[in-house]
Design goal:
There is one protein chain. By secondary structure, the protein is α/β, with parallel strands linked by helices. It is built from 5 helices and 7 strands; from the N terminus they run ααβαβαββαβββ. Strands 3-2-1-4-5-7-6 form a 7-stranded mixed beta sheet. Helix 1 crosses helix 4 and helix 2 crosses helix 3. The longest helix has 26 residues.
Length: 175
């Protein structure tokens, strides 16, 4: 009976996820949940240097794969994931707790979170959101903050490098 209840709960959470995803993408112009694969995440981490005890953010973190891989490679970093979609946040929160992860997962709008302590920010969002983030980064981020964007440019900034990974560009910026 307990197993059946757990399965039903998971099905309900996934149903809510898909309905929320449809609503947010269609009516709020939020980026859809499209995860980056593990191999690409590892290539991105290998292409960047993260200082010891740095603060790393993943905006629209979904399952927080980027942060989980950074946690393995750089165990002393402070890791903060921001996810707006409640059902995805809840599933990821449970997963991180079960794994004993130190990642701090926050539910909410990353435009309302101050990024002044960020040493590195990773995002895989959309053009509209990246355009809005440009001004936020200018106002809040320290000089030298690294921003990595998969597939979408950060208007008003010149990338330090662009690497093609699985036929998609990954842009590396420094504020």
């Amino acid at each position: 009976m307990l197993l059946l209840s757990l399965i039903l709960l998971i099905v309900v959470i996934y149903f809510i996820f898909f309905i929320s995803q449809f609503y947010n993408v269609t009516f709020k112009n939020y980026p859809p949940f499209v995860p980056t694969d593990r191999e690409t995440v590892r290539e991105i981490i290998a292409a960047v240097q993260i200082p010891e005890q740095a603060t790393v953010y993943e905006l629209g973190c979904g399952r927080a794969l980027f942060l989980r891989e950074v946690e393995k490679a750089y165990p002393k970093t402070e890791l903060i994931g921001l996810e707006n979609l409640f059902s995805l946040y809840l599933l990821t929160k449970i997963h991180l707790k079960l794994r004993g992860s130190k990642i701090e997962l926050l539910k909410g709008d990353f435009f309302k979170v101050n990024l002044k302590n960020a040493a590195l920010i990773y995002c895989y969002l959309n053009n509209t959101t990246m355009t809005r983030l440009g001004e936020k980064f200018r106002q809040e981020c320290r000089s030298g903050t690294q921003v990595i964007s998969r597939s979408f440019i950060l208007p008003g900034f010149e990338p330090e490098k662009v690497i093609m990974m699985k036929n998609k560009p990954v842009y590396f910026y420094r504020i």
